[in-house]
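Reviewers of the previous submission asked for a worked example of the structure-prediction workflow described in the proposal, so we include one complete record here. The input consisted solely of the amino acid sequence. No template or homolog information was supplied to the procedure at any stage.
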Amino acid sequence: MKTRSASIITALACATLAFARDVALKAHEAATGYMSRMGMIAYGVPRASGIPDYGPAGTINYNPEVYSGKLVEKFYRSTVFGEIASTDYEGDIAGMGSNVLIRTVPDVQVSDYVIGAGLGLQYPGRNSVTLAIDKGKSFSVAVSTVDARQSDLDMADIFANDGSIQLRIAADADMLETIPADVATVNSGTAAGNDSGDLNLGSAAAPRAVSKDNIVDALVDFGQVLDEQSVSDEGRWVVLPPWAISRIKRSDLKIASLTGDGVSILRNGKVGEVDRLTVYQSRSLLSQNSPSAAANYVMFGHPAGLTFAAQIAEMRIIDNPNDFGYLVQGLLVYGFEVIEENYVGCAVLSRG
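From that input alone, the workflow returned the following structure tokens.
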């Protein structure tokens, strides 16, 4: 009986000590901001003269620095070429310098019929469009053998992944900055519209100022430009800079009942579709700071008017010929082309 009582008392004492230890540890962690159980102590804690420093600031290093195995998340610019352009010709790429000939459908002319007058013959023709795979982006990162072996992270994998994303961002920006000059004349400028000719889409000299009060009007004008080119309602898109997206969210569209959505765009952050245009955001649009005002060249259209073909031609890890270590290298070859200028438009917008 005494032995059993002694065992109970011992168990209670151990539990009490464990509880007291946990309380002390938690208090210490709260005070120092470091995990004591991980063998870490706070920097800068005063020590009496003669007391050795066992932490990472000292030379004994009984309590070394501990590095997290997780990396801080990195966010990238969004790319839109896969959404706004046809990528049907990517499988035809053989390598940089290749050309893909895209055959187009000619227009058949219709005339009035008169009995006995005969039928006039026509031979419809339209030149093919050449998609040149004549652009390339690359990266090359050196990794030292010493760094690679001493690191607890897969440095090659980290650099290869980041590099491949940066390649696509660079190609996306190249396309968005180039195609404004290739759209049909009547799909841009201050007198746009194939039929109306009175839609102000802005110009380099006189950008169209948009605010939360009139940005929806601008989007409707984009839709009218495409309507006057008989562009299909299905698949239309527009690419806007972040500041323009903010103005949409502050416009009347923020009221869910007006858009027909169950949730306001202010609550879910998604603009979605406005007047048959799927809205995309990009920071890679062409911009200007002069001559009259800072502005962005906003693109809109249909995938049938624009094609983009890209492929990672090579991703490799090779020995560094000049040092101990290796090189992580990547190459992206690509090309893009406005294959139907009437299906793509451009507006020069400034902040109003």
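The mean pLDDT is 79. We consider this example representative of the routine output the project will generate in years two and three.
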